[in-house]
Amino acid sequence: MTSAATSVCDFRKLPRPALNRLAAHYGLTPESSLASSSLAVAVSEAFACEAVDEEQVLLGLLRHDASRGRRGSSNGRLEKRATTAAARGGKPSGARGVGAPNGHASATPRNSKRARGMTYGDMISAALKALPSRRGTLEDIYSVIEEEFSAQLNTELEAGPRQVPVWKASVRKIINLNSVRFHRTSATDASGHTIFELAKGAS
């Protein structure tokens, strides 16, 4: 069984100030009492959703290298090819595509998002759209996700006394932290459970 798409970066290794800066960059509004491990999950989710322009990343890395005086002749040739390709709207010849196997440049169109599996944030959005009035409690959202995306969920149990599945813990953290995509309303159901909905402008 596979889990939802995640970043290859381990954000748990970052110090709290760095996590806070990344959270601000992605529009997250974590509470100060939130554990760093939970904040790292939310930052990782936001990072995994971010579209990447591989050409610009390549040029940026080369220019940074050059500014520190470490650029060799091979890097100079590669930067020249990258710059020429950028002017023509293509990929640099001989450049290694970010994440492309065997050193071949990626065939992903410029400025398009790489194909990924659905993130937990995507699943939450889909679940809310499927619910009546496009809103519901966390349990409502769990039910839709479990029914629609069971093959993509990480069902291993979290370490600790709560022993909840990893996917449920991730969904709970993301929906409470990512105020850009999700809105925690002041309404509750008959049992007093908070009702969530998509944030204004979120898809």
From TrEMBL:
Stored InterPro entries: Fork_head_dom, SAP30_C_sf, WH-like_DNA-bd_sf
Keyword DNA-binding appears in the UniProt entry: yes
Any one GO molecular-function label of the UniProt entry: DNA-binding transcription factor activity
Cell location: Nucleus
Signal sequence residues: none
Keyword presence, DNA-binding: yes
Keywords, ordered alphabetically: DNA-binding, Nucleus
Domain Fork-head per the UniProt entry, residue ranges: 118-203
Region of interest: Disordered: 67-116
Organism domain of life: Eukaryota
Primary subcellular site in the record, as a coarse category: nucleus
DNA-binding region: 118-203
GO CC annotations, alphabetized: nucleus
Descriptive protein name: Fork-head domain-containing protein
